[in-house]
Structure formats: C-alpha cells, structure tokens
Amino acid sequence: MNEYIKNGNRVTISELNLPDDLKKLSVQQCWYLCGEIRNMLINTVSKTGGHLSSNLGVVELTLSIHRNFNSPEDKIVWDVGHQAYVHKILTGRADMLSTLRQEGGISGFPKPEESPHDTFISGHSSTSLSVACGIAEAMRIQGKDNYTVAVIGDGAMTGGMVYEAMNNCCYMKSNMIVILNDNNMSISKSVGALEKYLTSLRNTEKYLDAKRRVEKNLTQIPVVGNKVAKGVKQAKDAIKSTILERNLFEDMGFVYLGPVDGHNLRDLDRTMRMAKSFHIPVFVHVKTVKGKGYLPAEKNPGEYHGISKFDIRTGNPEISAGDSYSTVFGKELLNLAKKDDRICAITAAMKYGTGLQYFGKELPERFYDVGIAEQHAVTFAGGLASMGQIPVFAVYSTFLQRAYDQLIHDIAIGRLHLVLGIDRAGIVGEDGETHQGMFDVPMLTSIPNTVIYSPSCYEELRQCLKKAIYKEKGLVAVRYPRGAEDVAFHKCSVCPDYDFICTGKSDTLIISYGRILNEAYKAQSLLSADGIDCDLLKLTKIFPLDDKIIGKITKYKTIAFFEESTGNGSISEKIGSLLMESHYKGNYSRISADGFIKQSSVKSALEKFGLTCNGIADYIRRKSVENGKT
Amino acid sequence: MNEYIKNGNRVTISELNLPDDLKKLSVQQCWYLCGEIRNMLINTVSKTGGHLSSNLGVVELTLSIHRNFNSPEDKIVWDVGHQAYVHKILTGRADMLSTLRQEGGISGFPKPEESPHDTFISGHSSTSLSVACGIAEAMRIQGKDNYTVAVIGDGAMTGGMVYEAMNNCCYMKSNMIVILNDNNMSISKSVGALEKYLTSLRNTEKYLDAKRRVEKNLTQIPVVGNKVAKGVKQAKDAIKSTILERNLFEDMGFVYLGPVDGHNLRDLDRTMRMAKSFHIPVFVHVKTVKGKGYLPAEKNPGEYHGISKFDIRTGNPEISAGDSYSTVFGKELLNLAKKDDRICAITAAMKYGTGLQYFGKELPERFYDVGIAEQHAVTFAGGLASMGQIPVFAVYSTFLQRAYDQLIHDIAIGRLHLVLGIDRAGIVGEDGETHQGMFDVPMLTSIPNTVIYSPSCYEELRQCLKKAIYKEKGLVAVRYPRGAEDVAFHKCSVCPDYDFICTGKSDTLIISYGRILNEAYKAQSLLSADGIDCDLLKLTKIFPLDDKIIGKITKYKTIAFFEESTGNGSISEKIGSLLMESHYKGNYSRISADGFIKQSSVKSALEKFGLTCNGIADYIRRKSVENGKT
C-alpha cells in the first residue's frame, strides 16, 4: 500500500469525528486513512469472512463521497450493499468491524436500524436507482435541496430494474447522482452488451480528456450553482456536438461525467463537486480496481468476492475441499447433459455459487450466464423449452423471488418444462434477512401444477434432479440448502416420494423434509433413548403431496411437522388444512421458521426455531407430557 | 380507407390459403386485403369488445411479417399479445374472429394451443425479447437456420426485462429480429427517457435517408445472404462513422434499421428483406399510427385501446357512466391526498385502468406513472416511504406478481409503509389465463407482517383505504375486483375487521370475503327460504386474521369457506390449518378457484367454481343432507 503514503500528517480513524472530519483532511491525510482502512478490511475479513475485493476497490470512492456530501442529510444508497464496509468504517462503526456478519454484530449490508447513515436496506441487486428516485422525489415534495447518491456496480447494471428507474429519472428535476463503480467485474465475469459497452466507454481516453478540458475552464469560474451548471452544460453540449458521440446514459437523459480514476482522490473530489453543480440527474462513471491494495485479491478478485476466513500472509482462503449441495448439483447436471443435448444450464451471475462452473467449462454452447437478470433467465428458459430443449435454471431461493410472475406467466400457464435448481433454500446464515431462502415454498406452491422436490442428502439430490428432468413435466423445482450434507438417516438409493421410518409401536408421527429431516431422524433416536417412540414421515416430493399420505397419517394420535420455511403457505399449513378437511381428530402442530431472520450462524438460527435434533426432541417430549395429562 | 385502394385485382381473405398465399400477392392486392382486415377488426370489436387501436395500427406490419417470414417454422413472438388479432386473421382464424375473447372462442392473446402460428403465450408486457432469445438459441443448438421475430410496442419497451434480454442478445449469433412497433403511445401516454429518446429517433429523417441510400445501393446487388450482409454492414459502418451517431440499440449490440413507415408496405417489405440478410440480432424500428384507418380511433387511440362494444357509425363506445371499484378507489385516494400532502400515487402505465386519472389531473406533483415497470414502482415507493411520504401503488393483481421480490426486499424487511390498491383481484373474465388476479393472496400472505383488506362494497373500499393509510403500518394491501359493486348485504358504515351475520339458531357457518361475500349473503337468504339456517362470517381484514376468530367459529358444527382466490396459500387454507391446530372437531370444507382460468364472462367462471349464490346454496344444501345422514 506504499503508493498511497507520501507525506503530510498522519491521522487515524480513531482520532476523527466521522464522517464530518473527512471534509477537513488534506488529500495526503486521506491517503494515510485509505491505507489504514485497507488494513482494517484485510484484517477483519481474514477473520470474519465477507466481501473483500469489492470493498478494497471502493476505499477512495467512499472517502470522496463522504468528503463531498453531507450524510445523513444527503442520502447515500448502496446497491447490493456488500461494498458498504468502508462506508460503515467512515460513519462511526470502525470499532464494531470485528463483529461483522456475526450474530448481534454489524450487518454485512446497509441497515437503517444500525445507523442513520445507512439510508436503505440492500442485499439484492439493482435496486439503488429506484430507491434514489423515490428519495429524490420525496426531497422535492418536501422542499429539501439535499443530494441523493446511488452507488452501483457494473454487475448490478444488468438488472432490469436499473433500466426501469433510468427511464424515470430523466424527467425529475432533482439532485440525484448515480455513481457507477465500474470494476469490470461482477461476481463472475459477466458477458453481455452492457459490459462490452462499458468497456468501450472505459477506454474512451479522448472523452475523458475532453471532460478534463471542460473542467479546467470551469476552475476559473467561481462555483455558484445553477449558473455554472448551465455553463457546464453548454460547454458539454458544444464539445459533444463536435467531437463526442452521445452515449447510452445521455440517451437516457443523464448528464454523463467520466470515466474517472476511482483511486485518484483529487480527480474523484473534483468530479463529485462538478456532479453536484447540475441539479438534474447526473451519471458519474468511476473506474475502480477490485481488490485494490491487496495483491492476492487484485490478482484473483473473483475468489475474494465473498469469502471465508483466510491467511493474510499467503492469501490462501480456507476453501473447503469437500462437496456441497451446489457442487453435487452442478456435477450431476453436467453428467446428465453430456448424455442429453436437450439439457441447457442457466445462471443469473452465480456460476460458481450454484456449482455450474463444471457445466460452463465442458458444455459452453449450452451454458448461459445471463447476468443479474432472473426475470429474463426464466422467460429465456421458456423460449428454450418451447422448442423442446430442457432448461435448468440454478438460482438462489432468495433471488428467484424476482421471477415469480415469469414462472406463472411464461412457464406454468403454457405448461413448459423448466427445472429449477433452488440453491440456498432455507436459512443461509451470515448474510441475514435479505438473503434467507424462506419464501420459495409458498411462492411455488401457489403456482398451479408446480412440482417441488426437497432432497435430504447428496444422493437424493441427484435422484431428484433426474426425476425433475425425466419423470416430471411443467415447472419442477428441486430445493436444497446452502453448504454440505449432514446425513443422519440411512442413505436411500431409490428416493421414494415419501417414506415412513417406523418403530412399529408409536402413535406419534414427526413429519419433515430436506435438511431438517436429518435432525428429525436424530431426534427419533434421542427420544427412543428416553423411551419415547415416534415414527417419522420423510417427504422428498413435497408438492403436490401424494393423495395416499393423508390416509396413512390419520392413524396417529399426534402429528408434528418441522419445516425450514416461512410458515404461511408452507407444506405444514397445507397438511394442516388437509387433515382438517379429512376430519382428523388427533393433535396436529407445526414448527416453521417465521419472520425475517437476522444474521447468525445457520446452526444458531435453526436452534432458535427449534429445528435442530434437540429442539425437535424437546418439543416431542413436551407434547407427550401434555398428551399424557389429557 | 380509400387511401389503401388503388388498382389491381381484388382478393379476399376467404379465397386465400393463409399465411402462405400472402407471399404471392402484389402490393396492390395487399392494400385491398388491408382494407378488408380493417373492416373485420372494426366490425368484430364493435360487437365483442377488445383491443382495437393497436390492431388497426399493425395491419400492414403484420402482413409484411407474414409475407417475408415462414410461420410457423420462423417463429413470431408478439409482446403483450393484444395486437395479434391481425396475425390471427392471417393464420387461418378469420372465420373465428367473431368468437374473440368469448368462452370457447379464440383468445384475445396468442395461445399455442390455438394455433401452431402462436409461438408463445403472452398477455403481460416486455417478455418477447427473452422468449425470442430462448427460441433463437434453441434453433442454434438444433442446427436450424429459421428466423425468430419479436414484435414489441414502445409501451412495452419500458419493462426492465427488455433490457435484461437486450443485454443478452448481442452475443448470440442468431437470426433474431426485434421489430419495434413504435406508435408513440402506450395505454396511457407514457413519459420517460425512452419515449423521449424514441421520439428523437422517430424524427431522424436524415438517418432514414441515409439508410435509404444504403438500401438503394444494395438493390443493385443480388441478394445472396452472408456476402451481401457483410457489404451492408460495411456500408452502414462507413456511413455511421461519418454522418450518423450510434444509437442506444446499436450500443446494446443490435444492427439498427429504421425508422420505417409502418403503413407503407413496400418500405416494410424492403426492410424485412434487409433485416433477414444479417444473421445477427437486428432491431427494426417501425413507426405506426394507432387506430389507423378508423377515424374515431385515430383521433382518440387511448379510448379505443381496450374497449367494450361500440357503435361503428358514431364511434361511441358504450362507456359505463357509473362507478367501478377502480374509480371509487381513485376518487377516495384523491380526497385523502388533498388533505395530506404525504400521500403519493403511483401507477405502472395504468392510470385510467386503476382510476388514478383524477389524482393525476389534480395533484400531478405527487402522481407518478412510471411506465410498465412494476418492480421499479414498488422500490421507488420504498424510497418515498423511507422519507416519510405515504406512497399508494394502484396495480392490477396479475401485474403485481412482477414485484414480489421488491415487496419482500425493499418494503417488508424494512417495515416501510406502502399501501397497495390491488385492482382486478379475482376473476377478470375475457382476458383469460394471463390476466386473472388469483395469486395475490398467497403471494402477499407469504410476506411477514403484511396486512390485507378485502372490501365487499364501495363504502367499505373507502374505509379500508383509510385504514390502510392511517391505521396500519408496513405493507398493507386493499384488494378489490374488476367492475362495479353488486351489493347484497346491508351497507356497513363502520367496516369492522370481521362481522358475524347471524340467524341465532344455526350450527352451520359460511365464511367469505370480497365480492363473493355478497353471493354468500344472497345464499343465506335462499337457504333460509328452504328452511336451512346458516350464519355468515364476513371477513374484511382477511390477513392477519383476528386471534379471536378461531375461538368464535369452533362452536359451529359445519364450516364452509368460499373464496375467490387460488386455493393453495389462500385464507381458507390458513383457517383450515388453524382449526386443525385448535383441535376443532367439526366439518370444515373450502371452495376456491383453482388452476389457470380460461376466458369467459366473470359470471360464468364464478358459476363453474360454485362461487355464486346458487352455487353456495347448493353446496350447503348438500352438506346439510350429508351431515343429516351421519
């Protein structure tokens, strides 16, 4: 990091009143701070895990934003939000950085309840322009003249919401500034028209030079608001009409400034000041280097995007060598696709996360990374399916929420065959509320004719995927949790749609599926050791339920359903209603994971909901006492 | 329509083998056909109702498409799909046009089950480019060299999916052609950067001239595929680099052709041939006049967008003078907003449909028509709400599906206060599967902390809207059906969250809400006349249910719930499960409207599901006989 240290008095984060003091610092002092911030980031993330590369890339940019805007009166909206660590450091949370992403600690994403400087929740991509539009309009209505600044990465620019918002910005006469943090790198290298286009802009040195000349002329005029803005605009227009082509952002109604070197604080400060002078929507194009200042991350920013703990000296992340549900899914899909050229694989910018890297490498001609564009992904799959291909869309549960309408309108109504590999279904842990996969069950079961499988181990995942592709028709989902299998029950090679694991003498039945099934199985043993027998119904095809199931379970006196999903619209609710309609006279109860679930380890969250083996065993013990009493 | 008739032999639709014979016709013969088609459209829609203006605008364009492409081998994908009537006429369905949008007749939208020429279901906006991408890719995989043609209106271009798809088109080496049917007019006049931009392109006569010159040069070369395409491209590039600016569609990787006069068949045919020669994604910009050829519709295309029957001579549509749930909602919202400047109204291109025209006229500074952009609408509302405004988003139930993720991620997690006016909730009738409002209840109830009201009459709608704005917090929806109230029960001025309408001596309870509540009330009378007493539970706040309700209803021996929603995830399912968990020992049953519901009148659909007063009465009669037996 020595390049950032030149001379001037060192200041440290702990000495400053943040973010206000940032405005008083010299550029040299800021350089020191940037070094300190980078050290904090590397030290912290090496211990807690988290998003490193993206934060190392925005150190100077974040500093410049807080030097030139007055948060929280000026509103800073971070898109996706995982690059807000520097923002958190600079708004008084440096000493809490070590608690990052941990239960009770600070969140890995902006969160208004955490700080007034965190304007809006984010975690999903491409929302910042819409949020900023709303805030800017509210300011206009309320007669405020503060600024609204949306900071968005080039990866997030592929989401359709950005375009919907851009279409609306242009007619707003507001102090809205969009900063494109262009690091030429979304989570996995994105392909697409926009990326290509940004690359062409990024390399427009002539354009930048022209802008610089405009700026230079301007430095001779005192900055007094609208008058200057008009001057700038006229100068801009004059230059544009002679030597510059209009670009896409100008076509969409923005004043475009850039590209600017995102690691040159003087240039950044100057551009921010200029952006503030227009009082109409401005688009600032900033070029940054992901991982800047930490060589291992600069060399391999993809690996350092969202990572586990790592060794600072060697830069080696603790990458788990073993398999996960994602890799098992990805490998099995590749196996099947090698033998069947109808199979196509689709991801929305999550090639590695969903285990599709194997497919992408071996069968690139049937592999599609569409960018952060879940809506398009589903309807694109519909197009493929209408021609007899078999598209498989691997997607995180939480991101599939973006495509609910497309699943209904473009897949289910026409009964097209689409297989969904729903990764990160259930509790995901440290990412918290915005990323939990709690809604796919109610979402999908509301769509007529949908089929859902929920395997409990790797082998079952493979079997379910095969069934989804070859046995079922229409919209078929296979949902599986984040991470590795933790198998307690005997591995099934046949994978029936449902299975009773019976003791032969019990009048109590536990129902479960997916990851929790293993906990239920362990609970069965724990209870048996206590002399409490209970049977277990293991669901694999969780929807629609086999007609025979209700008839088979009504013989039990007590039924308890344990489910890793939000409760409303869940399978346990459906079984509850079916039992009622079947005049079941026994005791039915259900445990689900309700509400928005904050960051913690997966284990801790499951414990809180009573969805671990001990939780399940305790619940059944209590029930048997209650039932014994009555 | 005389302008279209010049000379040449007349041919009529009925004489032709369609669509193949279209290729054999002279341009003059096509002119006659266009006249005949326009007459058919006007005559039919004057009797059946439907989309007139948009279809009158695409007569020549549709003809030219079928003259230059070979459907169904070449795939034509109609965006939104309500402009596909001409396509239906030209693909062998002219004699069925009189059955348009009626039960058992042809659909008002493309439907693959109706004809092999209907490539893909559509009804919602902005899907065609994604579908076409998928089809074009499948063709590539399958080694086919047919064309895929997406036809999209300028209104639909505001949807984010279009942009997600454009981002993906560019790297496809496929015969994909996007035709922009630019009539400068979405359903209500759209504002936004794109519309402004299209207008600027639309008026680029210089650009058109330049294109014409390229074309002229080309006519001297025989058209032999790739070689010529290369030549064209080089000529284009040369011209572009000297006199033409790149435009947005070229920035996104398309070859751009246009603008072309969409009523000049020679120009259209020439452009189609040119578009076919590139074998990479081409964007054809066609200017059309909505309502072309029928003066009342040309003068007032908005009124003739989707209309009821009308008088051909006077051109007067049978506009119902009375109120509807939509207008009552719109007027009440305006009343409230006049007294409270925190209230903002948002529509996604449905100002008239949702009754927001009153608000838009009187309070334009707090009224937002964001275009067909439901995702942006919700998150934009989130931005407004985060600043203390009270946004009210009026949206059709079916289109709200587009914003499921935004409701969760940008509203509910942060507990921001957004009021949804969910119009067209329940069965909508003639528009059929793609437009039914059957999924908002499961969708919204799956989101933690959501509140839903379902009024049964206008006065209750007003009360519910007030409660949603002033009594509730967070995400609050008021859902109401399409059309006018049909009140059977005594109008309630206080509008309690729930109410028992009791006979005092019955052990049977009917539960319902919304429009169906009135049917249940009528059924109560019908049954009473038969000597069958039953009580009625009227729900107005349908979610979350008041805790006391379950305790109050378990005293009944028989409970039947009638619900105008899909059954999975519905309120009746929730009550079923709650009753089960409360050890209710009586009989519970529920009637909902499941599956994808085809076009018909609303009445006919409700009858089919047994959700009319007679259906409800019959059901209860059967139940009482059954219960009498047991």
Report on the structure:
The structure is a homodimer of 630-residue chains. The first copy, chain A, is of the alpha/beta class. Chain A folds into three domains: 2-299, Thiamin diphosphate (ThDP)-binding fold, Pyr/PP domains (Rossmann fold, 3-Layer(aba) Sandwich), CATH 3.40.50; 325-479, Thiamin diphosphate (ThDP)-binding fold, Pyr/PP domains (Rossmann fold), CATH 3.40.50; 498-629, 3-Layer(aba) Sandwich (Rossmann fold). The first copy, chain A, is 41% helix and 14% strand. Chain A contains 24 helices and 17 strands. The first copy, chain A, has a seven-stranded mixed β-sheet, with helices on both faces. In chain A, helix 5 runs parallel beside helix 6 (160-169). The longest helix of chain A is centred in the first third of the chain and has 22 residues, at 27-48. Chain A is globular and about 80 Å long. The model of chain A is unreliable at 1-7, 206-210, 217-229 and 235-244 (pLDDT under 50). Chains A and B meet through helix 5, helix 6, helix 7, helix 15 and helix 17 of A and helix 5, helix 6, helix 7, helix 15 and helix 17 of B.
